[in-house]
Amino acid sequence: MIEVKNLVKKYGDHIAVDHLSFTVEEGHIYGFLGPNGAGKSTTMNMITGYIGPTEGSIMINGHDMLENPEEAKKCIGYLPEIPPLYTDMTPLEYLRFAAELKGIARNKKEEEVQRVIADAKLEAVSDRLIRNLSKGYKQRVGLAQALLGYPEVIILDEPTVGLDPAQIIEMRGLIRSLGKKHTVILSSHILSEISAVCDDVLILSHGKLVASDTTDNLGKLMEDKVTLHLTVKGDEAAIKGALDAVDGVENIEYTDSEEKGCVDVMIQSDPKTEVREMIFYRLAAVQCPIYAMNQMKKSLEDVFIELTAEGTETSAKAQNNEDPHEEDSHEDELHEEDHEEHEEHPGETDETDEEDGKEAAEYDSDL
Ligand SMILES: Nc1ncnc2c1ncn2[C@@H]1O[C@H](COP(=O)(O)OP(=O)(O)OP(=O)(O)O)[C@@H](O)[C@H]1O
């Protein structure tokens, strides 16, 4: 559906996108993840034909974006980070206007406008001035515009930035439902967003692709080793003696504990061997009781930090599609689906947007 080959974008001497190649298959929701400045917006702007690449090619549904931009652009609906809206219009007026600009046939225009109003859940505010709408609704007006003409691919640049937690949940729900009818590419630097919404993840760092896999597989990348954190009461030498020869243990570090008379122990072990029982019996045998034992699970956030850490061996290996990881992985903590869904009040104004944005930023594990 989308094939990007050796894409490069230079701004003067600065390489914003550095020989990027990837393919996007039909019917998936892709997350484009990367820290600020990684090159996400630049890449999206090239895919949507807003800016030209310095080198490389972009094929959209068989149309070359450089040679046949009109046909290629017809396959794409784009919601930029700040949607360009005419705020003195109502959503209905704006969408009719946008439909005309997009060249939608007159006899289909009204039906199409009503369809996108329904898909973006704008019915309740379609007759209000855009400038009086909340940020969440404004974003949905931008989304509705992107949906006009039923493009195969929808590209969303940081679609939840500045929205409050309830609006974020609404927007994510909308994106998931869009994924049933369109291929969706969504850029974000918010990990929870990607893991909550996307099937596949492309991780960018310094303009390069450092990982490309399903959200689940990326989480599993770190399952090489299990890390246990223990607090054990007793003499360090006795504890060391007990833990020295436990099968499956690969590395142990001892530190003073905040707990009086205790030692904190960090153990890395092979995930194929269950070491916890043996640790318990060995420590019991030397009369060193375990006050706490926690198995640490790595999150997608840890994967992300390892992959985007500058110049690390991990990044290099990920690029070569080798398994670069050394610890256990888990991404349960990233899901926020348990949060109650709230309905936004139609016509809500922007007065609290700034504060809502802050809340949203705190609410997410925003890097
Ligand atoms: N028009 C421009 N002129 C010069 N440098 C630019 C321009 N646009 C982007 N850059 C630089 O290119 C790099 C990539 O920027 P880009 O906006 O694509 O990153 P991003 O991953 O989208 O980051 P963010 O999440 O902050 O939007 C950055 O170093 C940025 O400063």
Q: What does it look like?
A:
- By secondary structure, the protein is an alpha/beta fold.
- It has 2 domains: 2-220, P-loop containing nucleotide triphosphate hydrolases (Rossmann fold, 3-Layer(aba) Sandwich); 226-296, MTH889-like domain (Alpha-Beta Plaits, 2-Layer Sandwich).
- It has 13 helices and 14 strands.
- The strands form 3 sheets. The protein has a 6-stranded mixed beta sheet, sandwiched between helices.
- A hairpin with a 2-residue loop joins strand 9 and strand 10.
- Helix 3 crosses helix 4 and helix 4 packs across helix 5.
- The site of adenosine-5'-triphosphate has 12 residues, from strand 2 and helix 1.
Structure summarized in a few sentences:
The chain has 367 residues and is of the alpha/beta class.
